[in-house]
Specification:
It is a single chain. This protein has 3 domains: 88 residues, Rossmann fold (3-Layer(aba) Sandwich), CATH 3.40.50; 205 residues, UDP-N-acetylmuramoyl-L-alanine:D-glutamate ligase, CATH 3.40.1190; 136 residues, Mur ligase, C-terminal domain (Protein-Tyrosine Phosphatase, Chain A, Alpha-Beta Complex). Strand 1, helix 1 and strand 2 form a beta-alpha-beta unit. It has a 10-stranded mixed beta sheet, with helices on both faces. A 6-stranded mixed beta sheet has the order 16-17-21-18-19-20, with helices on both faces. It is built from 15 helices and 21 strands. It is α/β, with parallel strands linked by helices. Helix 5 packs across helix 8 and helix 10 packs parallel to helix 12.
Length: 451
């Protein structure tokens, strides 16, 4: 029996691969800094986890160390493995190897990729096609970020641009949802980041008589690919695309639209998952599933039953007098999309948002864009920046960001005082936003406002 050790096992991408090896009967162990709901689930599944950066907790005879680049360079465990020449591979390398030889459906983009990846997996799983999947979030329908189907030739993966990880994949179908500036600490410039997305897109082979590989691009993306790659364009509405939604209606909280494909129109698709941006996500997911061979009846049934992803437009409380939605949005465009979708659903309600910025570098690089997006809220509450892998930067803080927001109704709060502040504000629609550990506040907020 092989032993795999995961350095940073609590990461959403790392934990999916850990679950794969655990399901294959291997011994799986790991380290993470923080005990979370996800790490507790992994422990319940039989995976041994230590929360101490200490070599005395290591198992014997480790066959492979899988690590994430987010692990700090001064980690005791990381340096022990390096100094003692342990066999080591990045998460992205392992994912590339696991998907090799399969029909890999790789969904990339600076935002939208987790929802689309999960949608595609849901559509294929609920059809005669089936799939395995490594997801970038916990699917509410699967109750996991990992799906295994040994009988299907398709594997759906979230293609992560961080550290250029997605270049390890060999896609059968590739999709790009967005290429907004992000991870400038890695890429240095937006142009360099876009060049890497172009490199990813060009991993799709040039079309021949035998090849069926395809690239799906959102309409308007500035991605120039090699001549001869079969490229299909999707959009929320418009005739200059192969796949698009038309005749969009909102009825009793559900979206209805007609799904246009090059072959036919599928009328009156029902999407019960809220958010205007999720219509566009569903168009891409259905376009991919349609090309995989999912039929009209399977497509219609599956998309209407999609429940979503934890922390992606995640309804926690939904009453006539109070609504609470939790969302992973941590980029200015993601914030804008989420807030605008909430405004569309609740045009006459006061919308209060609690935002935890993620990374000092991202907050510094996009401070003005964050401020403009947060100004779409009626009330803004900021809590401290989640540092993740970073050390503090001089002058960069949530209070700095607060000063840039041109609103009267804006507040800074510690986590300890947040619940009392929110109760005093008496919100009608409450949003918690961010990719850090703000999720640990979700249950306390639920409990306070469920009384």
């Amino acid at each position: 029996m092989k032993t795999y050790y995961f350095l940073g096992i609590g990461g959403i991408g790392m934990s999916a691969i850990a679950r794969y090896f655990n399901g294959m009967g291997c011994k799986v162990c790991g380290y993470d800094l923080t005990k979370t709901e996800l790490t507790l689930q992994l422990e319940n599944e039989g995976i041994e986890i230590s929360y101490m950066d200490d070599i005395s907790y290591l198992p014997k005879d480790i066959d492979l160390v899988v690590f994430t680049p987010a692990i700090p360079k001064d980690s005791v465990l990381l340096n022990y493995f390096i100094d003692n020449n342990f066999p080591m591979k990045k998460r992205s390398q392992v994912l590339g190897e696991l998907t090799m030889g399969k029909k890999c459906i790789a969904i990339a983009g600076t935002h939208g990729k987790t929802t689309v990846t999960t949608m595609v997996a849901h559509l294929l799983h609920n059809s005669s096609i089936g799939c395995s999947a490594f997801l970038g979030g916990v699917s509410k329908d699967f109750g996991s970020n990992f799906v295994i189907n040994k009988d299907s030739e398709f594997v759906v993966v979230e293609a992560d641009e961080f550290d250029r990880s997605f270049l390890q994949l060999s896609p059968y179908y590739a999709a790009i949802t967005s290429v907004d500036a992000d991870h400038l600490d890695i890429y240095g410039s937006h142009e360099e980041m876009k060049n890497t997305f172009v490199e990813f897109a060009n991993k799709i082979p040039i079309k021949t008589n035998d090849s069926k590989e395809k690239l799906f691009l959102k309409k308007g993306l500035d991605i120039e690919v090699n001549e001869g790659i079969e490229t299909l364009i999707y959009t929320i509405s418009g005739y200059e695309a192969e796949y698009y939604a038309w005749n969009i209606r909102n009825y009793k909280g559900a979206y209805y639209f007609d799904f246009h494909t090059p072959e036919k129109v599928i009328y009156d698709i029902c999407l019960n998952y809220p958010g205007l941006h999720n219509i566009e996500n569903s168009v891409l997911a259905m376009a991919i599933a349609w090309n995989c061979g999912v039929n009209e009846d399977e497509l219609r049934t599956a998309i209407s039953s999609f429940s979503g992803v934890k922390r992606r437009f995640d309804y926690r409380i939904k009453r006539d007098d109070f609504v609470y939605i939790d969302d992973y949005a941590h980029h200015p465009q993601e914030l804008r999309s989420c807030i605008e979708s909430v405004r569309d659903l609740y045009p006459n309600k006061k919308i209060t948002g609690v935002f935890q910025p993620h990374l000092f570098s991202r907050t510094k690089d996009f401070a003005d864009d964050f401020a403009r997006a947060l100004e779409l809220l009626d009330e803004v509450v900021l809590i401290d920046i989640y540092p993740a892998r970073e050390k503090p930067l001089p002058g960069v803080s949530s209070k700095m960001l607060l000063h840039k927001i041109d609103k009267m109704d804006k507040y800074y709060s510690t986590e300890d005082t947040l619940l009392d502040l929110l109760e005093a504000l008496y919100p009608e629609v409450l949003l918690t936003l961010g990719a850090g550990d703000i999720d640990k506040l979700v249950k306390p907020i639920e409990e306070r406002f469920s009384k």
